[in-house]
Every structure is written in C-alpha cells, then in structure tokens.
Amino acid sequence: MDKKITIAIDGFSSTGKSTLAKQLAKSLGYVYVDTGAMYRAIAYFAMQKGYIKTDYLDKESLVVSLPNIILQFQFNAELGFAEMYLNSENVEKQIRTIEVSSFVSKVAEIPEVRAKLVEQQQQMGKNKGIVMDGRDIGTVVFPDAELKIYMTASAQTRAQRRYDELIQKGDQVTFEEVLQNVEERDYIDTHRSNSPLVKADDAIEIDNSNLNREEQFELVLDLVKQKIS
C-alpha cells in the first residue's frame, strides 16, 4: 500500500461523508480534509458580522471580507481529529448548529467563496494521500482523483440521522425543522449555477440508507485497496 491516491467523496448532506472520510484517513494514514467545515466557518463568520440572516444576504460585504478570513485545521489528539479554527478561534462546536446549517448552502453558492476555498483545497491535496469530502470534490477540486465516491440516502433517513445527532448534543430542534433544512440544502446544492452537486461520470454511487457505518467503511476500503494494489 505504498502507492498514495486521492480519494474524493461527494454527496448530499447528512450521508455520513465526513464519518467515512475520517475512517478511511485513519486506516490508510492519509490526510483528511472536511471541506464542509470550511464553508460552515465562512457562514458562521457571515452570521457574526450580520452579513447573513433569514431572507437577507450582504454578498458584497462578505466577498470584500474574504481576504481577512483565515481558516486552519488543528489536530486535537484527545478527540482524534482536526478541528476548524476561524481567525485563530476554535469554532468546531459553533459551526455544527442547525442555524449555521440553514445558511451554509447559500454562502457556498457565492462564486468568490468557492474560488477561495477550492484553491486552498487543491493546495492541501497536491501531494496525494488525502481523503476529502464535500459537494464538488470529484468534479471541480480533484477531477483526476483516482477514487471518487458519490454518497446518497433518502431525505427522511438523512434527516433522522441529523436529528438524532443534534438531540444527542443537547440542541433544541424538531424533526420537521431538520427535514426542512435537509430538503432546502439539497435543492440549493443541486441547483446552484456554480459547481452544483452532481455525480461525476466516473464516481461510484453508494446509497447507504440501509448500511451501517462499518458495512459502508468495509465496502469503500475494498474499493481503495483495488486502486492501490
């Protein structure tokens, strides 16, 4: 397994992309990059500055502020994964709220935001040996990735997973709120003009509605082994 490849994982929200990517990176000794956290951090920044609210987006002010936004991943040995830092502040917890979830797809539609983050992501993966998940990894960020996975599941299944996760964290949400958020994000992600969520022609589609984490991991790990053997 000396050969290192680029693994691109795309798909809808709450399909477990990040969980799978973390498992693969740990097993293979690869670098893991959660691109969703990067977009979430910018959405959180916009919220803090008052650039985005319900039915309001000050796109111009956000774009002007982009050069002042510094995103970094810092590994937390106790947790076993890297956390997102926004301008030197750990925002890992703040960016996972349903409020940030409700704004992230709108922020991700902005071409200037995507250009800034895609450039950073491509730089991170220039030496291969990387697992990256998001919406446009196999189509835009790494179109030449050796392995592309496209993950999907029913909206109801994904909303239930997200709801259970938020409740476990102590968030006060209803299932209906979470389902609406999932469906809205699906629509925005697949209909935006800039880098919409689409399945790359050479991606392997995995519907994990009826797969547990371990079954999914073993399935994809076998695909990785076929590529690097």
From TrEMBL:
Protein's cellular compartments: Cytoplasm
Protein name: Cytidylate kinase
Gene that encodes it: cmk
Enzyme class, UniProt record, top EC level: transferase
Alphabetized UniProt keyword annotations: ATP-binding, Cytoplasm, Kinase, Nucleotide-binding, Transferase
InterPro entries assigned: Cytidylate_kin (IPR003136), Cytidylate_kinase_dom (IPR011994), P-loop_NTPase (IPR027417)
Reactions catalysed: CMP + ATP = CDP + ADP; dCMP + ATP = dCDP + ADP
SUPFAM superfamilies: P-loop containing nucleoside triphosphate hydrolases (SSF52540)
Molecular function via GO: kinase activity
